[in-house]
Write a structure and sequence with these properties.
The chain is α/β, with parallel strands linked by helices and about 140 residues long. It has one domain (about 5-135): Nucleotidyltransferase, domain 5 (2-Layer Sandwich), CATH 3.30.420. The protein contains 4 helices and 5 strands. The protein has helices at about 35-50, 75-85, 100-110, 115-135, and strands spanning about 5-10, 15-20, 25-35, 55-60, 90-95. It has a 5-stranded mixed β-sheet with strand order 3-2-1-4-5, sandwiched between helices. It starts with a strand and ends in a 5-residue tail after the last helix. The mean pLDDT is about 85.
Amino acid sequence: MARILALDFGQVRIGVAISDPERRMAFGRPTLQRRNDADDLRRLRELVQAEEDIERIVVGYPRTLSGKAGPAAESVERFVARLRGTFPALTVETWDERMTTAQSKRMLIGAGMRREKRRKVVDESAAMLILQSWLDARRGEN
């Protein structure tokens, strides 16, 4: 079975996670520091080529607690459009990321991680939560 790549897109960083081939678990990958669109897409192309059998990219979509598109939704929509142009053979979709960054921070604080270390892994952790939620929602479909 092909694997799934998940992205937590932000203005400064892009959190990255990938599923196992059986699509049961999400695993973090190093967070990408954003530079510019062309460089971000180049590094994502390299990542997709380095990982085997990626068939889908899931991008966290910011919603408010009421379910409406959040303030960052427009930039995520532009990013998703660029991903679709860069990866025409892959399915690119959005997934509700409501509260994933806050949940990630709480988990890392609960694990006793210091603030400096948390800053380095919070986006990766949020991408893992997005992907795990997506995987759990589809459990049993395959």
